């Protein structure tokens, strides 16, 4: 078998086997002041600690988009986030309140988010592409009292229908402020706020700081709740896996609306005190290569879909940029094809390191390391301090080579602590005593490497983003022409999967390309652009169980021309 040999340098994780045998999470606590004071706040550790330890003048954030180019030191970020913290306090926010952040990537987003964490609020990041219904579902479920947004996005917040939502804080000039007492100008409130660090709320390690909404195969999006203690793992995987060092310029391409964009777009890098690049705007190969070139990025964390799009770009795009600053590349979110790893090796002369984890796991769990060989196509091996296994449905561990449920021994620091308002859902993950069951199917080989095989539910990973078929189906049937809808992920060369919808029309509607487009526009304007079915197929009726549930497994089999399996529960009327 093809293997990419271990790197020959000196790394933050030099001896994987030894760390696995001796490492204890307690050791990591010593890196933080709270191990002595007992007072903790992840935002303080992320920003202020560096100032207090003499690294205040170091560049923390290098931000750019089409119109702006700015940089901020740790001292500057400390002052700005302290000021934001005072502002939240002045507006009545206190520990445990849910504050949503609904903004495009910008320095203001990072300040708004960390400032809220400083006062002990639980932040809910929302991806900027979300439209009204998606925004509403999340604000409703979490009973958020505040949302921070921009003039461009504010109209998507249906505030009349959200009794708990007291304040809509708008960053930038807006004609909305003043029109209702709910709308408040953030710039004005910031200007009135103090900038000392007395607004910090010292909390317990087990207090929450973030609520990431994510999709399952059934039901509404679920609020995955993480606590301050997660910092131990953000910090330590930043060392072991991202291999971060003092002089690194690090770039994580994920948006903070998704967990990768917070755990590794904010906390992992800044807990380790490295310079963090944020690039606003949309993806284009030229822009991305240009970003690496411009900032001399050394460590780059991205996703398979992006790598595949770069692979497909004209060779000149690559030749126009100097990418020689790169020394370490990583990937997450979907299976990383061996072909992409080979491309990375050819083009950058570097190995692409796959990492596996989930919104629910809060931080990386199964990874490839610079000091270990890579088997292209494998997600790698569990980090020290974490045990992973393959178990059957009763919790029996399976031998190497056998496929089963990818499961993690419970108790790692960044593990979710609850699903907001939904204990039964939370408990489903831990139905097998002692294990967290991921919902992914995998096997382990004789050398302890894990190999991803698929999801065992209907969750769709499209272009690295996680979408639930249920939310899309529910929206589709709200369209006047749609009687029934079933949504699946269809394998796609570039995006991993695309969203495909099977639709049965209401009486009186005829299938046509115009109708397809109209339905796509409907989803785009009410739910989100990334939730639009790229393919729609009309059917006279959809396969359903006798209890009326759409059988997505049959739709998938139709799509892939595979046998449909056991149809005994199908309603044949
Ligand atoms: C998938 C993203 C294959 C998996 C951090 C998981 C992966 C889901 C990998 C979580 C990988 C993540 N190889 N599949 N290296 N990493 N996945 O919550 O199906 O957006 O369950 O978290 O992404 O997606 P989520």
Protein architecture, described:
The protein starts with 15 loop residues before the first helix and ends in a 13-residue tail after the last helix. It is 30% helix and 23% strand. The strands form 6 sheets. Strands 2-1-11-10-12-13-14-15-16 form a 9-stranded mixed sheet, sandwiched between helices. It contains 18 helices and 26 strands. α9 packs across α10. The chain has 2 domains: 428 residues, Rossmann fold; 103 residues, GMP Synthetase, Chain A, domain 3, CATH 3.30.300.30. With 573 residues, the protein is α/β, with parallel strands linked by helices. The mean pLDDT is 95. Bound molecules: 5'-O-[(S)-ethoxy(hydroxy)phosphoryl]adenosine. The site of 5'-O-[(S)-ethoxy(hydroxy)phosphoryl]adenosine has 22 residues, from α10, β14, β20 and β21. Its EC number is 6.2.1.1. One of its GO terms (molecular function) is ATP binding. It comes from Alkalicoccus urumqiensis. Belongs to the ATP-dependent AMP-binding enzyme family.
